[in-house]
TrEMBL record:
<dbReference type="InterPro" id="IPR050821">
    <property type="entry name" value="Cytosolic_carboxypeptidase"/>
</dbReference>
<dbReference type="GO" id="GO:0006508">
    <property type="term" value="P:proteolysis"/>
</dbReference>
<dbReference type="GO" id="GO:0004181">
    <property type="term" value="F:metallocarboxypeptidase activity"/>
</dbReference>
<dbReference type="InterPro" id="IPR016024">
    <property type="entry name" value="ARM-type_fold"/>
</dbReference>
<feature type="compositionally biased region" description="Low complexity">
    <location>
        <begin position="443"/>
        <end position="457"/>
    </location>
</feature>
<dbReference type="Pfam" id="PF00246">
    <property type="entry name" value="Peptidase_M14"/>
</dbReference>
<dbReference type="Pfam" id="PF25571">
    <property type="entry name" value="TPR_CCP1_N"/>
</dbReference>
<keyword id="KW-0479">Metal-binding</keyword>
<feature type="compositionally biased region" description="Acidic residues">
    <location>
        <begin position="1209"/>
        <end position="1220"/>
    </location>
</feature>
<feature type="compositionally biased region" description="Polar residues">
    <location>
        <begin position="477"/>
        <end position="490"/>
    </location>
</feature>
<dbReference type="Pfam" id="PF18027">
    <property type="entry name" value="Pepdidase_M14_N"/>
</dbReference>
<feature type="region of interest" description="Disordered">
    <location>
        <begin position="441"/>
        <end position="548"/>
    </location>
</feature>
<dbReference type="InterPro" id="IPR040626">
    <property type="entry name" value="Pepdidase_M14_N"/>
</dbReference>
<feature type="region of interest" description="Disordered">
    <location>
        <begin position="1206"/>
        <end position="1243"/>
    </location>
</feature>
<dbReference type="GO" id="GO:0005634">
    <property type="term" value="C:nucleus"/>
</dbReference>
<dbReference type="GO" id="GO:0005829">
    <property type="term" value="C:cytosol"/>
</dbReference>
<feature type="compositionally biased region" description="Polar residues">
    <location>
        <begin position="536"/>
        <end position="548"/>
    </location>
</feature>
Length: 1243
């Protein structure tokens, strides 16, 4: 080392004692120090004394501009005297103890670490080495090591690893020297290469000699030893050594010993150290096997249970939980195949598509449990684990996804299809050529009023019981349309009924031919027998008489929800009529469930001796039940809901085609939903709820005899999905439109595992659920576990609850979905996801959504759903009712855009205002109105999109002045449901093609994706005739964020986020794309501008939003995302979202369009300058805090209890899930550019 020249800092007195001594030390050359050892000792001793006694001396040595550190290190390097070396080490120890971080950094930058290693190697060669010197060297290295990033590499290259290990082997009983050696070893082991090298050198075995049973002595040494061992065991090679050395049982024994003896919990860190060692070992398969064989599950379960009452021991409980979950044997889902239970044969299967891959798998290999060590997910300690870790990992990948090709960031100049090919779509745009010359504007009013006179008469629905009914209670329904085959109870035929033909030759059930015999003393029965218990009507084809027609409609269970009683009912009770709101329905009455098309006898549900419980699978005995009953009048929801009509809904169901040929109607869809008037706040998470649920799951393995594992519902048993039992189990059903529940297993008396069905022609996409439960007991808490969820995170961890609909409540005048469930959490479980279903990724697991609930009514029928259901038949009913609202001033046309794969019609609506007259001026204004193109429900599970669309449609058809102005301003083209097949069949994501339709917009297939193909063709036609829409908006739902927000497309913002070089001409674009979301943020309380993003990503290039922007040239092309959970800002902050708020959002979208019209028509471009200021302001702030507006941290606060759902960053997330916009609300800086009204919404 070159001899440094002593320098002093300005302001430091030149006569400073310590600086004078350092100058003297500096003047002693290497040889002089060797010759004059005594002087060197004296000088270093005096310097040490000054630093120890005078704080200012240390500051003078370490002050900026001082070369004191260089002089000290030079002297240390040149010293050959042990005492002088020790003095200098003492000096360094004193200097680095105070102001440690900065001083250690200076020490490292001056090469101090290398000099210490050099002295260590030299000293280790002396026999015996100086104990004091080794002690000071390792103490100093322990201070420096964590601050030197290259510490491990330097140690390995210098040979210091072996020196430290040899010293430890020679001093196992010398705790004073062993402690600093272990501290240094702990730092060595953080380097993976060092850890492997140390393992080869026998250090793992050495460490197991150091750790010991419970003792009050040497606890600091044991803590450091466990830390070092834990670091070593992160290496899989060392973990295998530990397993081979049979150390797993030893670790468990030691942990249990400390657990039992540390009764005052003073040594929690030591106990956790043992657990960390075990946790690192079980990262390999051999380690997990050894843990199970050593009865580790029982040991940790019992010890953790004892720790639960002590809150300070949570780190032990959490780490034990991770270990037990990791070691819980990976199981397959209890299914014969992970493919959908329903099969639909496609007209053709694309060779490269997901369906071809699905069906190319050999039988029996579609669900493979993989336990490869190489693909195990690493789980952070629960107390430090958060979803933010996933986002931090995703920041770089998110930036990689941003589109950087400028050619793709500008609309295409040439059209891809010729106009001649698109001219067939001219028929969908009659309004662009209509001249209204033959239209009588005077007589249209009477014609319109007569066409809407078919609305339902205001009256209650009569619910008959076993008591006879008079004809005045007969609901009037004209049954027509196609029916679907169904299953019913096998009953004896009447004498007048001929024997039906065999099932194979049976035609579809004709609803208008159901023949019924009514008896005064017995319940009504539909006589449609078949040998296998399947109801048919092949022999009943003669036109019914008037009396028969009355009987049919009496039997029509859709109108006559039968409430039966086992014994005789008090006659006085029978004539009371409708129950008062708030009073429970009589607990002895039994509700039939579910509603069946055509009056087919329904299943009995509920308890009581002699009742036929549960099944319709060819069971006998339904016709021997009798007794007197009462008549209850169910409130007519048509009076409460302007667009709901139960009779009309039934008619619509008849024309709906499903793959399973559903013949049942769910009560909620029939009765309708009246939004509750009370608020439903976000659920506060109970501390420890996830942990307690996980422990209950672990009990299944520890106490397997306590688990019933009884199948109570199974769609894979096509002939009889509802399993008969003794009445001790709940009854489940999902065989109705939009239903999704594949299997239900009773695991404990009041606990059920539920398995969802995958999308048809798919083996994944499990999220949407909608099913019926009956046979419950009042006051009992039931736990439901949906065990095959796929998302790595869920709003169920952040206040969202499931939805429940009670039929008893509906009958009592409260037909509504309500948020319900307690102890809700979402976490990774022990069911392995097949790599086939996980995109080739191995080692993935499913997730469990668990919730508990109580039922208020005996013999109730309740429904649970992921979100407010909105079926395809509901849409058809709403559209029919909307048509009845049309006035002479409204131009409304409903076309059939196309027919889906499943045979359902996809409606296309055109809404605008009628011209004032057929004069040229009025016709010209009518034809030249800008177009607004809206679509929704491309993803079936995002039912909130349909509720928003309902709000939009109702507003557009409304009588308000704003609605009239909006119709006069625009022509609306609306496809309210892009994926009817997916909705009907209970899919979450896909259509019958097994593909996400919102990923098919670039090249839709006419046969496989007809709705996307024709919708895109409509837009292409408009682009060809120079009438591209002013606004395109696709309504979606978002499962992982709160509020309502938009995604748009901007060249400028994408370029800014990707940091690619671009010329000013490349960045020129109209800033109007921000106007609509900006307006919404000012008028819609649920809307959050801060969550919006306008970045274009590569992974989204085939979505509607990007394709319409890029290929059609629509600048204002959006995806509007509505939360499935609730809001964390504005008027609805802290509340779960409901249908009222969603419909309001749809209406506010219309109001925003009206304001947009006024804004763009006044030719005042000041607002565009304001918008540019918004963009620049947001950009400069967002970039500084996060590299992308595409992915930012989850917008959720951390809980007192850390959530360990082991988020996986590689999950394939669809647009409505993965487009996490920039959430800037948390940073007050990001609110600077918002308007006053917007700020008010956020208060």
């Amino acid at each position: 080392m070159n001899k440094p020249k002593m320098a002093t800092e300005k302001g430091v007195p030149s006569n400073s004692r310590v600086l004078m001594l350092l100058g003297q030390l500096e003047r002693m050359s290497g040889e002089a120090m060797l010759k004059d050892v005594e002087t060197a000792r004296q000088v270093t001793s005096k310097i040490l004394h000054l630093i120890q006694t005078q704080e200012k001396s240390g500051k003078e040595v370490m002050s900026k501009g001082s070369s004191g550190m260089e002089v000290i290190l030079s002297s240390l390097e040149n010293s050959r005297d042990v005492q002088t070396t020790l003095n200098i080490l003492y000096i360094l120890s004193e200097l680095l103890t105070v102001g440690r971080a900065r001083r250690v950094a200076v020490f490292v930058s001056k090469g101090g670490t290398g000099i210490l290693f050099q002295i260590l190697n030299t000293a280790s060669k002396e026999l015996p080495p100086s104990e004091e010197l080794m002690l000071q060297l390792h103490s100093l290295l322990a201070k420096v090591g964590p601050k030197d990033r290259k510490f491990g590499v330097k140690a390995r290259l210098s040979g210091a690893l072996n020196a430290t290990v040899d010293l430890m082997k020679q001093n196992l009983q010398n705790t004073k020297l062993l402690l600093p050696c272990l501290q240094v070893l702990r730092v060595y082991s953080t380097n993976s290469v060092n850890a492997i090298s140390l393992g080869k050198n026998g250090v793992v075995e050495l460490m197991f000699k150091i750790i010991a049973p419970y003792s009050k002595k040497n606890t600091s040494l044991l803590k450091v030893a466990l830390d070092a061992l834990g670091a070593l065991l992160k290496s899989k090679t060392n973990a295998r050594r530990a397993v081979d050395g049979r150390h797993v049982p030893a670790l468990l024994t030691l942990y249990l010993d400390w657990h039992r003896n540390d009764t005052r919990h003073r040594h929690m860190l030591i106990r956790k150290g043992f657990l960390v060692c075990i946790r690192n070992i079980i990262n390999i398969k051999l380690g997990r096997k050894a843990f199970i064989e050593a009865d580790g599950m029982r040991i940790l379960y019992n010890s953790s249970t004892e720790c639960l009452p002590v809150r300070t021991l949570d780190p032990l409980v959490n780490t034990s939980s991770i270990i037990m979950r990791k070691c819980f044997p990976k199981n397959r889902l209890p299914l014969p195949t992970i493919k959908s239970a329903f099969n639909y044969q496609l007209p053709h299967i694309p060779a490269a598509g997901p369906v071809a891959q699905l069906y190319s798998q050999p039988a029996g290999v579609d669900d493979v449990v993989d336990e490869s060590d190489d693909n195990d997910e690493t789980e952070a300690d629960t107390e430090n684990d958060s979803e933010n870790e996933e986002d931090e990992k995703n920041h770089s990948s998110a930036n990689d996804d941003i589109e950087t090709d400028l050619n793709k960031l500008h609309p295409k100049k040439s059209q891809s299809r010729p106009l001649e090919e698109l001219r067939v779509y001219e028929r969908f745009f009659l309004e662009l050529s209509e001249d209204f010359q033959g239209y009588n504007f005077e007589s249209s009013k009477s014609a319109s009023s007569s066409s809407s006179s078919s609305s339902r008469s205001p009256r209650p629905i009569i619910v008959p019981t076993a008591q006879s009914l008079s004809p005045k209670h007969v609901p009037k329904l004209s049954s027509q349309g196609d029916g679907s085959s169904t299953k019913g109870q096998h009953t004896q035929p009447p004498p007048s009924a001929s024997t039906p033909s065999p099932p194979a030759s049976q035609p579809p059930l004709e609803l208008n031919t159901v023949h019924l015999i009514k008896d005064q003393d017995k319940k009504e029965e539909a006589h449609i027998p078949s040998p296998d218990g399947h109801a048919t009507l092949s022999s009943l084809t003669s036109p019914p008489s008037q009396g028969q027609r009355i009987e049919q409609e009496l039997a029509h269970v859709l109108e006559c929800v039968s409430l039966e009683e086992e014994g005789a009912l008090n006659e006085e009770e029978g004539i009371k009529g409708v129950k008062q709101a708030g009073s429970p329905v009589n607990a002895t009455r039994l509700i039939q469930s579910p509603l069946l098309l055509g009056g087919i006898v329904t299943r009995r549900v509920g308890g009581g001796s002699g009742s036929n419980l549960g099944s319709d699978c060819g069971s006998e005995g339904a016709d021997d039940e009798g007794g007197e009953g009462a008549v209850l009048e169910v409130p007519d929801t048509a009076l409460l809901l302007s667009l709901h009509d139960p009779d009309l809904y039934v008619e619509m169901v008849k024309g709906t085609h499903s793959v399973p040929q559903y013949a049942e109607v769910a009560y909620p869809d029939y009765f309708g939903h009246v939004a509750p008037t009370f608020r439903e706040p976000l659920m506060e998470r109970v501390y420890g709820v996830q942990r307690s649920k996980i422990f209950q799951d672990i009990e299944r393995m520890i106490h397997p005899n306590d688990i019933l594992d009884k199948v109570v519902y199974d769609l894979d048993i096509l002939s009889c999905p509802v399993i008969e039992d003794d009445g001790e189990s709940l009854k489940f059903n999902s065989q109705f439109e939009s239903g999704n529940l594949r299997k239900a297993l009773q695991v404990r008396k009041y606990e059920y595992d539920l398995v969802l069905n995958s999308d048809i022609n798919s083996n994944h996409y499990h999220q949407w659920f909608y099913f019926e439960v009956s046979g419950m007991r009042v006051g009992t808490t039931y736990r439901f576990n949906i065990i095959n969820s796929e998302k790595s995170n869920s709003q169920f961890n952040y206040g969202m609850q499931v939805l429940m609909y009670s039929v008893q409540e509906a009958i009592s005048g409260r037909p509504r979905w309500v948020r319900t469930g307690s102890d809700i959490c979402y976490y990774k479980n022990h069911f392995a996801r097949s790599s086939i279903a996980a995109g080739g990724q191995k080692g993935k697991s499913y997730y469990t959504l668990t919730f508990s609930t109580n039922f208020s009514h005996k013999d109730d029928v309740c429904y649970f759903a992921y979100h407010y259901p909105y079926t395809y038949s509901t849409l058809k009913m709403h559209l029919s009712k909307l048509e009845a609202l049309r006035t002479t001033k409204i131009y409304l046309r409903q076309d059939v855009l196309c027919e889906t794969l499943g045979g359902n019609r996809c409606p296309l609506l055109t809404i605008t205002a009628m011209p004032e007259s057929n004069s040229n001026d009025h016709i010209c204004q009518f034809r030249n109105r800008p177009l607004i193109f809206l679509s929704a429900r491309v993803h079936p599970g995002e039912t909130n999109a349909s509720w928003v669309m309902k709000g939009t449609l109702e507003f557009l058809m409304g009588t308000s002045s704003q609605a009239a102005s909006l119709r006069e301003a625009y022509i609306f083209k609306i496809v309210p449901m892009l994926n009817p097949d997916g909705v009907v069949n209970g899919n979450h994501r896909c259509s019958l093609s097994g593909e996400d339709l919102n990923r098919q917009w670039q090249s839709p297939n006419l046969e496989l994706h007809p709705t996307i193909f024709h919708t895109k063709s409509l837009l292409q036609y408009l682009a060809h005739i120079q009438r591209a829409p002013l606004v395109f908006c696709d309504y979606h739902g978002h499962s992982r964020k709160k509020n309502v927000f938009m995604y748009g497309c901007s060249v400028k913002e994408t370029v800014w986020q990707s940091n690619i070089s671009a010329s000013s001409s490349d960045l020129q674009e109209d800033l109007g794309y921000r106007a609509l979301p900006k307006i919404l943020s000012q008028i819609a309380p649920a809307f959050s501008m801060g969550s919006c993003s306008f970045v274009v990503e590569r992974s989204k290039e085939s979505t509607a939003r990007v394709v319409v922007w890029r290929e059609i040239g629509v600048q204002r092309s959006y995806t509007m995302e509505s939360t499935l959970c609730g809001c964390d800002q504005g008027k609805y902050k802290g509340l779960q979202i409901g249908t009222r708020e969603l419909e309001e959002m749809g209406a506010q979208f219309c109001v925003a369009l009206l304001r947009l019209k006024r804004l763009t028509s006044i030719r005042n471009h000041q607002h565009l300058l304001d918008l540019e200021g918004d963009i620049i302001g947001t950009q400069t702030k967002v970039v500084s805090s996060c590299p992308s507006t595409y992915v930012m941290e989850e917008d959720e606060p951390s809980f007192l209890e850390a959530i360990d759902y082991s988020a996986e960053s590689n999950d394939e997330d669809p647009e409505a899930e993965n487009e996490l916009g920039s959430e800037v609300l948390k940073n007050p800086e990001h609110l600077d550019h918002l308007s006053d009204s917007e700020m008010n919404h956020r208060d």
